[in-house]
Design goal:
Layout (H helix, E strand, L loop, with lengths): L4 E5 L3 H14 L11 E5 L6 H7 L5 H13 L4 E3 L17 E2 L2 H12 L4 E4 L2 H5 L4 H6 L10 H12 L3 H17 L4 E4 L4 H4 L9 E3 H12 L10
Parallel strand pairs: 1-2, 1-3, 3-4, 5-6, 6-7
Helix pairs in contact: 1-10, 4-10, 7-8
Family: Belongs to the aspartate/glutamate racemases family.
Protein name: Aspartate/glutamate racemase family protein
Pfam family, one: Asp_Glu_race
């Protein structure tokens, strides 16, 4: 069987590793051969998405399209980009292959869940671009943005530095704020967030964009998902 799944990673490396682990953990496989076959194109040198959005620094588009070209030349027909903020430029990515849109997939999961007031954890660029918020508002869903947006960014940066314990402690008061402000769930709309937030950290249901994209990859590869106890 040919490999038809490609992943563009490196945004950031720790989040990419978690995403690959997710694919392995969520695949219902009895042996090595039943797992997903994919090609990873990992480029940590892809320009910073936050700087590109707020400060007009170099756009990530050319670097990501270079990755798409590489994967397409190697026979890949379905590509995932596990970085929510990068999806701000989704319309500029080359469309010669099936490019999975993790934002659209996550919004659909939110709509299907029935939650009406999800807390929203994301980078400042994802929030300000209204990448998720616009679609949610059109569906009558009021996402709750934490006042401590800068604290979320601090936690994300600590994950990128590999300081996981500090990142987890930094994010904790933001989660408490969302719990206290009436959130009925939490959207993890940044791939660094699942590295430091899990079901043991809050009683609120977690809507995990990272997991949702990993599940789509597994199904796109013709594999089975493990049963999931939400």
């Amino acid at each position: 069987m040919e490999i038809n799944i490609g992943i563009i990673g490196g945004m950031g490396p720790k989040a990419t590793n978690q995403f690959l682990d997710r694919i392995t953990e969520l695949t219902d496989a009895a042996n090595d051969q039943e797992h997903v076959r994919y090609i990873l194109y990992s480029d940590p040198a892809i320009p910073d998405r936050i700087g590109a959005y707020f400060n007009g620094t170099k756009s990530p588009v050319d670097a990501i399209n270079k990755g798409i070209d590489f994967l397409e030349r190697n026979g890949i027909t379905t590509i995932a980009i596990p970085c929510n903020t990068a999806h701000i430029w989704f319309s500029e990515f080359k469309a010669g292959v099936n490019l999975l849109n993790m934002v659209d997939l996550t919004v659909k999961a939110i709509l299907d869940s029935g939650y009406k007031h999800p807390g929203f954890l994301a980078t400042t660029a994802t929030i300000k671009s209204r990448l998720y918020i616009k679609n949610l508002e059109e569906a009558g869903i009021s996402a709750i943005i934490p006042e401590q947006e800068d604290t979320v960014m601090q936690a994300v940066k600590l994950v990128k530095l590999g300081e996981i314990s500090r990142a987890k402690a930094t994010l904790k008061p933001v989660v408490k704020e969302l719990e206290d402000n009436g959130s009925d769930s939490i959207i993890m709309a940044c791939t660094e967030i699942p590295v430091i937030l899990n079901r043991e950290d809050t009683e609120l249901p977690l809507i995990d964009s990272d997991r949702i994209l990993a599940e789509k990859i597994i199904l796109s590869a013709g594999k089975r998902l493990k049963p999931y106890n939400k």
